[in-house]
Every structure is written in structure tokens, then in C-alpha cells.
Amino acid sequence: MLFSEELRAQAQPIMTAIHEHPFVRGIATGYVPREALIFYVEQDFQYLSEFIKIYANAITKLKDREEMKFFANSINFILNSEIHPHHVFCDIADVAYETLQHATPAPKAYLYESHMYRAADTGSLLNILAAFQPCPWTYSEIAQKQTKEHANHKNNPFKSWIDFYAKSANESEGSLSNSVFQWIDRLAENATPQQRQQAMQFFLKSCELEWQFWEQAYHQEDWHFKELLTTEKNSHNKKLSYNRKTTIQ
Ligand SMILES: Cc1ncc(C[n+]2csc(CCO)c2C)c(N)n1
After folding, report:
1. Domain count, the chain
2. Residue closest to 38 by CA, chosen among 159, 165, 218, 215
3. Which family does it belong to (predicted)?
């Protein structure tokens, strides 16, 4: 069994829980509470900014230009394309995107970011890829399943979100997710059982943290002593963020 198949097999219970999560089901059925959408975008904006920095840092560990290209393309994707799904959520919640870009990372987002920095700190490319991979993998699984269920019909306000992640999953043979799994397999061939075990743990924890990220947004789980942990600038913007773009009659 290829290592990437083992990773996916081990993560199956987590992937099932993600498919069944009320936030994710809400995307398929067309209704997610407004507060959950706002919290998600606020947290995801912060999370993706850290993601970019960690990818940039990973480039410093590489020698091969093709490998550098992969990380450079991923940074480009996050900066220029990944804002589209955020706009979909903002439009549905009727809130301006700019007002959601100043949040303090909530506990699970902070944990997920820290987990990725920890993977990067090991200096092992296998660990880094294993920790990053649940991010594109779980989203393409969600979008592909919901597309199969025909959840992306024209009356679903989340249609464009589903199509976006289904498209990035299908794009060319080397869809991002598949080519990274192949890369992981090449690296795993030369790894010891202990190194593979460590990479497996990074992968599974990131999968759990993907589930936690949906859960955190759905219940707006935040720091208990938020006032102490939030800067002036953040708390000011937080108040603005809940103003609707348009007035409800
Ligand atoms: C918590 C969280 N996890 C995954 C994604 C989706 N995503 C982020 S970057 C990227 C491609 C580059 O690896 C994809 C598919 C998200 N937005 N937020």
C-alpha cells in the first residue's frame, strides 16, 4: 500500500465527520448561520496569511526549482484565487470582506497555525507536506462529494464555493492534491518507519484541525479572556465587522 493511501485510509473517520459537520452540510443544503460564516472568514483570513508565510519559509529548504515552483504557485493561489470563496461567504452574510481582516486568531486557528510551524521546524519536507496536505485534500473531497450529490444547483447560494473547490480538485491531471500525494510517496520511499510515523501524525492532526476549524466557526468558539488577548485595533474592527453592508427592512 502506498504511504499516501495509508494516510487517507487512517484519516477516513475524520473525513467522514467533516462531511457530516453541520457547517459543511449547510454548504450543501444552502443554509449556514450568518455568525458562523463571518467567524469562518475572519479566522480563515488569518490562517491563510500564516499559511503563505510558512510556504515561503519552506522554499528556503529546497534546492530543486520544480519544487520551489510548487510552493510559489500555492502562495499565488492563496493570494489571488482563494479570496473568491471568502467573497461567496461575505456576500451571503451581507458583510464587507475588508471589515473581517483584523481578527485575532481564535484558539483552534492558533493551534492549527502552530502545528504547521512545528512541522516546518522539524526541517523535514515529508513532515511539511504531510501537515499541509489536509488543507487542499479535505476541501477537494468536500467539493467533489457535494458535486456528486448535485448540491451545486443554481438555487444554492454556495454553488460558486462548491464549484471553486471542485474545479481546483479537477484541474489537469496533476491536480494540486494528487500531485502532492505523489510527492509524499516519493519522499516516503526513502524514509524510515519512524519518519513515516511522524509524518502520519502531522497529517492526522491537521485533518482533525480541519474538522475543528469548521466546529470553531459554527459555534464561534473564542478565547475566554478575549479582551486581554485582543489588541485595540482588533477590537475596534470587530465592532465594525458586524454592520451589514445593506440595511434589512
Ligand atoms: C482552514 C482551511 N483549510 C483549507 C482551506 C482551503 N485551502 C486553503 S489553501 C488551499 C490551497 C493551497 O494549499 C486550499 C485548498 C481553507 N481555506 N481553510
Report:
1. 1
2. 218
3. Belongs to the TenA family.
Of 46-55, 56-65, 100-109, 145-154, the one with minimum mean pLDDT is 56-65
Ligand 1 center from residue 195 Cα (angstroms):
25
Q: Whose CA is nearest to atom 14 of ligand 1?
A: 136
* Cα four-point dihedral sign 136, 43, 47, 223: negative
Cell of 234: 482588533
The minimum-distance atom of ligand 1 relative to the CA of 55 is 13
Is residue 128 within 6 Å of ligand 1 at its C-beta?
A: no
Domain range enclosing 21? 3-241
Q: What is the mean pLDDT of the chain?
A: 91
Q: Look at residue 49 and tell me if it is in a domain.
A: yes
In angstroms and rounded to an integer, the radius of gyration of the C-alpha atoms of the chain is: 18
Is a pLDDT exceeding 90 seen at residue 19?
yes
**What average pLDDT does range 55-76 have in this prediction?**
91
The verdict on the CB of residue 39 being under 6 Å from ligand 1 is: no
ipTM field:
0.97
Q: What is the CATH number of the domain that holds 122?
A: 1.20.910.10
Q: Which of 107, 46, 103 is nearest to 237 (CA)?
A: 103
Ligand 1 centroid, distance to 44 Cα (angstroms)? 8
**Residue 104 has what DSSP assignment?**
P
With a threshold of 0.90, does the pTM exceed it?
A: yes
Cβ–Cβ under 8 Å, residues 242 and 248: no
